[in-house]
What does this fold into?
Amino acid sequence: MRTINSNKNYFILLLLGSFLYPVFAPNYTFNISQPNGYTFEVKMYGSEHYNYMQTIDGYTVSSVNIGRELWWYYSKKENGKVLASDILVLSNNNPPDYSFNLKPDYVYKNILHEHRNNEYRSSYNISEISKIKPLVILVDFSDNFPVNNHKYSKEQFSAIMFQENLSPSSFDIPLSYSMSVKDYFHEASDGKIIIEGNSNSVVDWVTLPESYSYYVNENQGLGMGDGNPKQSAKEALIHAMELIDVDMTQFDGDNDGVCDGIIMIMEGSDSGSLNEFWSFKSSLWYGDALDVNPLSPVNGNDELVYDGIVIRNFIVTTETIYHSDSENYSSGDIRPIGTICHEIGHLLGLPDLYDTSESSAPGIGDWGLMGSGNWNNQVSPSLFCSWSASKLGVVELYTLDNVESYNINIQPIHASNMAYKINIGGDRLGEYIILENRLGIGTDSYLKANGLLIWHIDERLTSTFPFYNEVNTNENFYGVRLLEAGGSNDLSTANSSIYSSEDHVFNISTSIINDYTNPSLLGNSYDKDADGNREEGTLSGIEIRNIFMNGDNVNLSITAPAIKGDRLVYNESGVQGCVNPDLLDYSPGVKYSTNQNDEYLKAVQVPIINQNGSVDALRLSVYNITENPSFIDENNILYSIYKNISWGCDRTNGIIDILLDNVYLERDSKYFIQFDYYGSGYITPIEFPFFTNISSSGMSYKKNGDGSLTQISNADFAITIITSDNPNHEINVEEADICERLKPKFPFPNPSIGQITIPYSDAFLGDADILVYDIRGRLRIKKNLNLSNYLEGYHLGVNSLSSGIYFIIVSNKNGENEKYKISIIH
It folds into this structure.
């Protein structure tokens, strides 16, 4: 379950220009003197908008003005702010533990010139603390063959999970186990994700009624056999819940009525055999509990419920580790934290970032927890990669755009909680570069190298999780790809044994990286619009020069193009499920509002889901609802396009681009964007709070048969809106002499008030486009329809247009046009 709270209380794009030129803190240490003469060495982090100061051994300090003297104290944290404690920084005062690596909560502000602040809208709130309160159940079996009897205790697993500053010697576990799951998430999230629990959160060994082999069912307990959900980990969980006596209200950290997660520690080890449990995260689906036991306590959705709390998300792992690390753990040792942390990443809503296809490529490898970072070292797994961390709200992505030879100094992400984002191309189509500085300290101590990581992100490929767990399944276009500094493809090579390498990191002087180097900053090339053809990669226009390490920092110079518009994501955590269109008595859509600037609708992105059906085509329609936000009809339609779906490039599902004709959107106006799928099965994507805890945007609506709009209050339709503030092509209708070449048969009436009739023409029977442009050449209305159905002429509503002169073009599939001019008076 996602446990970071969501406070979405704004749903329109905000176009706020920012013209701040920050001064970053110096990248060297310096001395501070107390009024009594004591001197100590410090380093400053951050910028004018967000900064803090630490001693060279990592303790944060704050100053207080006392009697016109500036005294320095070790810091404490209250309400997200770093304040002075009552302990002075003096030679005879030990720094308190709570001051170590202490940082203020970050409040996002634009810091770079002329870029928008409405980036991808995360449903997480970075300023809030998230508590995950898992229930841990130690699971024994009536017959535990083929694994050994359990040998570790409730107290040891309580320490592994919840002990703060884990002391392994106190619990008779390997001395290399220097951090608990709680410790890891505290460091990886800078204290924003708290794994909360104690010995009462661990249920001592409970013996299930069936044998080990019964629940494993020769498919590692995954439930892939004929019995699912029986003879699987799901049935083991349902049986365990029947046997334990626990107040489940204690395991709902965000008070949403759903248990944060149950971790089942299965007796035995995990050699990889089909006859032993595999570690994974899963969920009880509607009806699963009743399939196992018809007397199970369930709610109205047939979900398992105890003490009023829904039992849904769970993790399976094993008591001991089978694999050995000569330095840190041996086969048969108690399970170290790496894999548990990875699976909790799924509870938070993150996808796997290794290749989940049969090629088994490392994906992002050891460079992130959701790749193979749990194996970077199981006792000290890698941090989240910066993309994952940004989704959780624990790292800020600062957007760089409209810069030329701009020098930046990137601090280690451990210290700054910051990475840089650079859009690929001028339109916000969800493809971008992230620059991240990783330093091998703390939980990252086992990384192969320090330095700059350059990530290539494509949200067309990331945003169908959790419906598809296929972010990195095509070696030619990953959703999250690390650009390997040496130009290699270790991480995307099938069955590669290289999970990390010094050659993956930019840490020696590099002169230039751009669209034409190896590695390249060029956009991905694949079928992005489901027309059966491969689109070429977008030229990024990004150039990175003079990369070098300056101590722990990365210095470089960057050139990046201006971003033309904005991007609004309604389905922030991906596609959760689908609806059968044959059962719908409405058309789905979302509301969109402009503010004080004119905009152009550049593209709409929608998911095509073919797992439980087949999408053959879709229609996208845009309505102006400024005058009546609760009702639409043909009189206020602006644009309509019908698109057949045909896949290419080894891609059969996912987010697609529907590129539009820069539909003009007036300032201070409201629109309804409707999308209808055609096909069979469950194909209309929707995001609802099942796998993760979401807050709906309140902007998803259904259009009923009578034209009325009804809000969807507990879900969002899966759609993304991309706008531009400056269309990249103007209409080519030859306005200069169009008036001289008007056809003798005009639309009527002219002038018109609310509706005009496009006259019947033999040349335009069949499919045709009707396009209406204003006198500045801006597309105001587009409709695609079969004019054979309108032998008396087609009635076009123009209530959405203001008074003025307009040009109308009717074109058929052969490229023939008829052009008209008309006046509209209101």
